[in-house]
Every structure is written in structure tokens, then in C-alpha cells.
């Protein structure tokens, strides 16, 4: 996009064909004087504007992006701009999490007859972008390595599931098994200290089921693969929210899934556990205490107290029990207190925009683009048809730069807006430990703030907020142009 | 006669600094995070010397995650717009590189990559240039590891294949032994003390490491057994159920070498177009999707079959060695703890029971 050097900046405008594009035309016909920085892309409706258009423009070097559509209640397609309003407002809140000043993005409403308003909007926005100056990039941001703190004390006692009624659960699964294609659970993995998913089809498979703090994986990721078949799934509290979200989006049918639940006492942060275990030849044994497990490797005992080694999400967990289940056993734990700000999010909150750009550059450099984050995500149901793999439309290049990698994270995070239950599988699956969960947590917080404390995956009947709209939004205010 | 030198832990930074005068040094660096990782990075003075096994092998030195093969520009003749000139610029570049402190399995990875890239009917010029400029300093492992199985597949904690210099930790320092001419040349000008006196200690340490390994099962018949199971879809499905198809296993595998070629940018743009070669992985559905839209490997089970068969059956048929070095990263790094060893052993057992 050529610009007049030193005079113009790169500003991209996405304008609705029916209103704002006409409004710009009206301004032009009226010979209204306007700045020349804006490059207009005409779209059929502001509802057509994928928030990723805006992020891609900003990451590709745009200094500002303006979206303009028909006034609310005046959409040519009756409701396109209502959807746009929600999405764009979420994006407006999200951009700072990446380290992008959200003043560089604005959305507004201009009708075809409002030539004068268009002149005002484009002049004010261009002036604003010139005040901000050229957008700083990511590739050359100074390096900044920071790590999240450990979460504060848990909201409920953490344990090892030692006294959970596992045998009764196995019995219940065996009773239901004849009607099910399989029941998904956990079994021992390559050694005693690691678990791997179990797909029990025969009663003897069920005997392999394990329960405890090693069951970190969220098995809901497998459910959509069984679409049309009746399956059972064993869930922790957090996993159950993923199942509910899948039900909310009709990705799994309620009658096809049988949910088996035990109250969760927390799971271990296997990244830190493996770090402490270090290199070892064999696991000699594993002992479950009430609040700690002891793993013996090569004759040496390693003690892991749940209080210290539980995943951060488990400490802030307010739903240790499944929010929806068919077979439920065990005693309900007492949860006290409010969920704290998640640690990865707190880390982002503590940084300014420059630091965040530096932070993401530093983190993203080691990304392998393996997309384990995507494939481990129970909500990433596009599977083999992810837009990041598409060559046409060409969302992403194959280049290994941090901008591309960060853009992929943005794709994932924005596609999960209002859908992410915060299970943290993306981050757990990352082989190089990039704290990407913070981006999802950031959006989840925004969604809660904008849409009446909405939390994904709690109520199977609830409509995810970005799949709906209100004619009068309670928490979204139109911004004034001056 | 190989060169044998001795370095104290405090002497290593000076050794690296000396090497870095003429070469880029890739050395392990710790990336702190909730889940900490160790990544090979350009080393410069002041960086700590890390000797841990890296989370990701240094394969990037010869097969970058993404490399520009060449750039192309098209320009129109202003007098005749039909007349388009094409300008190609070769971007093959290689600078002298020393990999410091990779493990024997990582070094053997280069030997696996060399065969298809250099020893086939055509040598890959990009790979060849980087490989010819590469010197590999390997630190031998002091012990086995629960996910490692190098000795199953022809390697070991002090296997020299692919390494120019083997470095072994002993009391008070490290013995560096050259395994190739390049390694010898490097050591002779490295300014390190003579190590012949303490070499026996290094040999003893290597023996101890070997002795610490659990006995390896015989997997010599794996190529035939896996080939025999080719049509047994049920076997592959059972062993792939938990797989997320993410392909992380292939990206941190020292021997996986498949790539994708794409053109990015516009030939008429002032920056020109770029032909890129980037890592690809057989666990992705796109890997085999054809231009017609047909995809011969839509099921993840068949993709897993391809990965296992390539490592333990087809590559050995073509090149006479497994294309798996037993580094175990695909086990320890798998988000769902899939175990490639179990698949291979089960395949051998299944083929036996089928026959």
C-alpha cells in the first residue's frame, strides 16, 4: 500500500456498501475536504468484517483501521451490524493484550446521507492516528522474558483423589458400556507418573481407568470426533464445561453423550513435575497421600504437594464438580471465595503496551508452529479445515517470523471468544511452554464484563454471546467523534 | 589420530567465545516458563553455558523452520506491457556454524538427514551448503532416561555418528575428543589443554552410561513387521485413538525432514516474491491433500501409520538404518503421552500373531 512518504500513514477502512461507503461518496460529491491516508475496502455489511481482518491489517503494518457500517436498527440486512458491534467491541478490548494500542482501531456508524459526519469521522480518526504516529512492529521489539507467578491459595482443599469412589465409577461405566461405542477416560501412560487417554470398549478396558492428579488432559477434545455415535466420557469439573460448550453449540448431541463425573481435587502441573523429576531411568513407584504424591525415580523419592504443584487453573477453580453429568459420585467439595485473576492474565495486566509487544516477540520466537495448542483445544472443531492452513484465502504465510506466529494465536483466541472455558489445554500442550492462555483469559474477561458476567460452558441452553445480540446493548456505548 | 582436549567448566565460555570469532554458535538456552523449555539459540558472550538436553533438537541449523530458497521479481517493459522480465535471485546462504552441546541422538539426526538430502540421485544445494559449514560438538549422556531409547535403534549415550567432537563430562571438567577431521582442526586451534591423560576417565564415564541403560528389545524385524501390517487399519486405529494430529512430534524430531514449498508475496511488488521451504508434517491432513481435492490419507490412523512406517520400515528399506534415533521427544513432548516404542513393539507382536 503506497503512501506519500512523511505525509501519510497507512489507514485501512472497511466500509459497509449500503451506508458508510455511500456516506463517503456523499462527502466526496459535496467536495468536503478529507485527509488522504485512508484506503477504503468496500464490504457488503459491517457484519462481514471478521475481527481478524483488522488484526491482520494491524500486524501487517497498518497504522490504523476504521470500520464503519449502518447505524444500529438501520442495517440493510436487518441485524449484521448488531453482530458486528459485539465482535468489534470485544476486539477493541483485546488488542491491548497483544501490545497494540486500541486507539488505532475504531468502529462507527455513518449512513449514506451523512456526508458531513463521514468527513468528521475520517478527519478525527486520521488526526488521532497521526498523533499516535507509525505503528511499532513486533519483529524488532526489544527482548523481554517474564514468567507468571504461582497462583494464590486454592479456593478449596486440593487432594490426590485417593478416596474417590473410583471402583464404583468403574462399575457404573461397565453397566452403561453395552449401550456406548466407548467410554473415554485416562489410563497409565508410558510410566506410572504419566497418564494417557483411555478409550474403553470392553469391560476389561474399564479396569485400566485411573483417577487422580495426573489426569490433566481434557478429554472433551475427542467428543466431536464421535459425532453420531453414543459415547461416554469421564470428566473433571473443568472438562465438563467444555462438554457443555460443545452442547451449547450443537457440536455434540446431548442424547449421544453420557457424562461420568467425580469431584476433582486438582491436577498436577506436569511441566513443573517433569522439571523436578529431571532425567530418570525408571519410576519405582508412586504413592498417593491425602494432599501429596510421592514419585520414586531410580530409587530417589520426589514429593509433590498438591498445594505447590497443582496447575494454576486448579487453584483458581470454582467448579471442581461437573456442571453437568449423568452419573455423579463422591462428596461435594466446599469452594470458598472468588476466583482470582488468572496468573497468565495478571502477567499481561502488569505490563504496558511496549512491554507486551516485547513479551510476545520473545515468547513467539520459539513457537514451532506445530499448532498443538489448536489441536488440543476442545473448541477447535474445524480440525483439518483451519483457516490458518488455507492458501486461498491466504490468511497466513509459511514464514517463521513472530508476526505470523502471533497472528495464529490471535486467530485461535478470537475464534474462541465467548467460547473458551479456560481449560488451558492450549498452553499445556505447547511443547515449548509459551504462556498463550493469557490471550484467551483476556478475552474471556472482556466477554464477562460486556455480557452480564457470561461464562462459557456453564448452561447448556445459553447462547454464546457472540452468536447473538441485543438491540440495545447494556454495556457497549457508542463513542463520540469530536 | 584424534585430538583430545580437556576443558574445565569455567573454561567453556572462553572456548565458545573463541569459536564464535569465526562461526555462529548454536547452544542450548533455557526459556523459563510454567513449563520450561531448552532451545538452541545463537550464543554470544555473557550467555550461560547450558548442557541440558534441549526440548527441540538443532535440526534448524540445516533445515530451518522456514528458509527462502530464492526471490523472484517480474517487471513489465514500459514500451510493451506484454513483455515481462523475470529476475531470480538465489538466496542459498550458509555461514560457518558450530552446534554446541547437542546430544548423540541429535547428532545422529544429521546422519539420517544426510542420506536423502545428499546421498540420493540429487544433492539438495541448500542443505549441502549448510551441512558443509556445520561442525557438531556433542555432549555424551551420563545416563539413560525413561523416554530415551537410542540403544534400541543403533545409537547409544556416546554414539559418535554425526558428531565432529564428542564431549564427555568427568570430575572437574570435560574431555573433548575429535571424531572427524573437521573436529580435529577445530580442537587444535581451540586453545584448550591436552586431555590425553584424563581420557581414560571419559571412557569410563561412557561405559557407566551404557551400563545404566535397561536392556533393549530386539526390533530388527520391525521393517518387515510394519510392512506386513500396512493393510491392518484396525491396528493403526487402535494405536492412534488418542492422537491429536498436532504434529508436534515431527517438529521436534531430529530426523523428520518433510517440507512444504510455498510462494509468498507478489512478483510485481517492489519486494518481489519469495519461494519458501518450511517444515511440514505427515500428521496433518493437508500433507497429502492433492490439487484435485482428493486426499489419500484423511484418517489420522493412516497418517500415524505413515509416520511410524517411514521411521521403522520404508526409510530402513531405502537407506539401511532406522530414521528414528530414540531421542524420545515424541514421547515426552506429546500432549497425550503417546509412546512410539509401544506402537513398534505391538506391531512386531501383531505381525507375529498374524503370521
Write a structural description.
Chain A is an alpha/beta fold and 482 residues long. Chain A folds into 3 domains: 122 residues, Rossmann fold (3-Layer(aba) Sandwich), CATH 3.40.50; 163 residues, no CATH class; 108 residues, no CATH class. In chain A, 32% of the residues lie in helices and 14% in strands. Chain A contains 16 helices and 12 strands. In chain A, the strands form 3 sheets. A 5-stranded mixed beta sheet of chain A has the order 6-5-7-8-12. A 4-stranded parallel beta sheet of chain A has the order 2-1-3-4, with helices on both faces. In chain A, strands 9-10-11 form a 3-stranded antiparallel beta sheet. In chain A, helix 1 crosses helix 4, helix 2 packs antiparallel against helix 14 and helix 3 crosses helix 16. Chain B has one domain. Chain B has 11 helices and 12 strands. In chain B, a hairpin with an 8-residue loop joins strand 11 and strand 12. The model of chain B has no long low-confidence stretch (mean pLDDT 95). Classes of the chains: A alpha/beta (482), B alpha+beta (355). The interface between A and B is large, with 54 and 53 residues.
